[in-house]
Specification:
Blueprint: H1 2-22, H2 25-66, H3 140-151, E1 167-172, H4 178-182, H5 203-214, E2 217-225, E3 228-239, E4 256-261, H6 268-278, E5 287-291, E6 300-305, H7 326-335, H8 354-367, H9 387-390, E7 409-411, E8 414-419, E9 444-446, H10 447-454, H11 458-466, H12 470-475, H13 478-503, E10 506-508
Parallel strand pairs: 9-10
Antiparallel strand pairs: 1-2, 2-3, 3-4, 4-6, 5-6, 7-8
């Protein structure tokens, strides 16, 4: 069948060509012209169909993109930023003063971290045996190499050893290479992509964070007293006139705005600052993470804002702090000191307002900071490498009533309110080994902080807040590392909410005056 059809087509084609050759020249020209016209007609039709189909596809693509992640509003505003490296993506904010991070769907099965986060192995450093040492321990470790450069550029130790107030060594960094001095302030590590920072930060907070992270360092000092570990303080380019200084005595330590450099192992200071602001407590000093070119260790160091009002009698005299034993502290909670009326002189009350203890207890429980209310580690099972065991403080738990509280600090001009310093939090504490002694005697907790915990928005707010500090974000492993830290705090907040319900603790508005 197929063969006969092929033969027929061949016969027809030969007959047509034979007739075409026999026809006259004019007739052959007319046939060729007709074939060309028909061919052009079909070509034009095909081109028009192709263009029409392309227009429909373009419109369809536009409509599909307009329904995507970055929706275009009426004014045609586009999203500000998308962080492809950290996994955090930004949509168009519904409010102009918040940086929003779009969150993935909450895990159906939350990550269970036994012991929360395994602590990093680090070399043991010989600690000072002074029990009431008020400086952060283990600061000197990685700073020793940078301090060596400072010591090589100062006068001999004998020239300042006889000072009655403090011993300090200073280095004008302008003597170093100009390029090295400018490296730290070339690009800001505080990332704020909307018009304003998140609402839990004040304008002064943002200003201080930018100074600590970006200011060009003019002078570096190592301040020490006796055998207490040194403080490394840098002075930025923003200066304050001595005539405007309330504490003119401090010009010898910090003539302008300064920051205190801590060891990399104290990075919890930065997380503590953000948690404090998210919960609305506002009791910590601003802290950021920063790398310093003159330290040559390549690590990010927490830098805390210097506040001279914490030392009204001079650095040698120490912080403006309150001395209380555990028994006196529990008695002040029962008496509700300074809640409504001034207590009697013989009541044994300190100057701290009653609400301040509740704020402190909530904050310390979430971060498991025990060096204020429980420096002897009586409320949990400490490890052999913990400070309280190495210094022999844990043995004092046999007589708990006479154990003194530590690091209860206030500003010299404001004895009613606490300032949370030396916030050495622990993220590696097992959930069955939490320190509930921190909550003992507490009958009320701040409503604003508890409402954040109950709203289930703690994770979202902490992500938005911590994302601002790029150096800290990257030092913790990006979003994945930050999520693990927040997992720990979320789990502890659930334990705290259960504790509140089980013990009938009141949640009230606290405006301590």
């Amino acid at each position: 069948m197929g063969k006969s059809r092929f033969l027929w087509l061949c016969f027809t084609f030969l007959k047509l060509t034979s007739n075409f050759r026999r026809s006259s020249l004019s007739r052959r020209s007319l046939i060729i012209a007709t074939v060309c016209v028909i061919y052009l007609f079909f070509v034009v039709l095909q081109v028009g169909h192709t263009e029409q189909h392309g227009d429909r596809r373009t419109d369809k693509d536009k409509s599909r993109h307009s329904r995507g992640l970055y929706n275009v509003d009426i004014n045609g505003a586009l999203p500000d930023f998308a962080d492809l490296h950290t996994g955090a993506s930004f949509g168009v904010p519904t409010r102009s003063n918040v940086v929003y991070i779009t969150l993935k769907t909450k895990r159906l099965k939350p990550v269970h971290i036994r012991g929360t986060i395994r602590p990093k192995l680090r070399r043991k450093v010989r600690r000072n045996k002074t029990a009431n040492s008020y400086f952060t321990q283990n600061k000197v470790g990685t700073l020793e190499r940078g301090a060596g450069q400072i010591r090589n550029n100062i006068a001999p130790r004998s020239s300042w050893k006889n000072s009655r107030d403090i011993d300090y060594k200073s280095l004008d960094l302008r003597q170093k290479s100009h390029e090295d001095a400018e490296t730290d302030s070339r690009i800001s590590s505080i990332r704020i992509y909307s018009q304003m920072a998140p609402p839990w930060f004040s304008a002064q907070d943002v200003k201080t964070m930018r100074f600590l992270a970006d200011a060009k360092i003019l002078r570096m000092k190592e301040v020490s007293q006796g055998d207490i570990p040194s403080l490394f303080i840098f002075e930025g380019e923003t200066g304050v006139s001595p005539a405007n200084e309330k504490h003119t005595k401090w010009n010898s330590v910090c003539g302008g705005q300064c920051g205190v450099i801590h060891s990399p192992v104290d990075n919890a200071e930065v997380f503590a600052f953000h948690l404090d602001r998210v919960l609305g407590l506002n009791r910590t000093l601003p802290a950021v993470s920063r790398k310093f070119s003159f330290l040559h260790d390549g690590q990010s160091h927490p830098v805390v804002s210097w506040d001279s009002s914490l030392y009204p009698e001079g650095l040698a005299a120490g912080w403006a702090s309150v001395r209380l034993t555990w028994r006196q502290y529990q008695s002040s909670l029962k008496l509700r000191c300074w809640h409504k009326n001034n207590p009697k002189p013989d009541s044994g009350c300190s100057t701290i307002h009653h609400y301040e203890w509740s704020i402190l207890a909530l904050f310390d429980f979430l971060l498991q900071i025990h060096n204020r209310l429980d420096q002897s580690c009586c409320g949990f099972r400490p490890r052999r490498e913990d400070t309280c065991v190495e210094l022999g403080l844990h043995a004092q738990c046999l007589d708990q009533d006479h154990i003194e509280l530590a690091n209860i600090v206030h500003r010299g001009h404001d004895p009613r309110h606490l300032v949370f310093t030396n916030n050495k939090g622990f993220f590696d504490r097992n959930e069955d080994n939490l320190d509930f002694r921190l909550l003992e005697g507490i009958k009320e907790l701040p409503e604003q902080a508890v409402s954040v915990l109950r709203s289930r928005k703690l994770r979202e707010k902490l992500l938005q807040s911590l994302f601002l500090d790029q150096t800290y974000w990257e030092s913790q492993g990006g979003r994945q590392g930050i999520e693990k830290l927040i997992d720990v705090i979320e789990k502890r907040s659930e334990v705290l909410l259960t504790y509140i319900n089980a013990h009938g603790i009141k949640v009230i508005t606290m405006n301590a005056q």
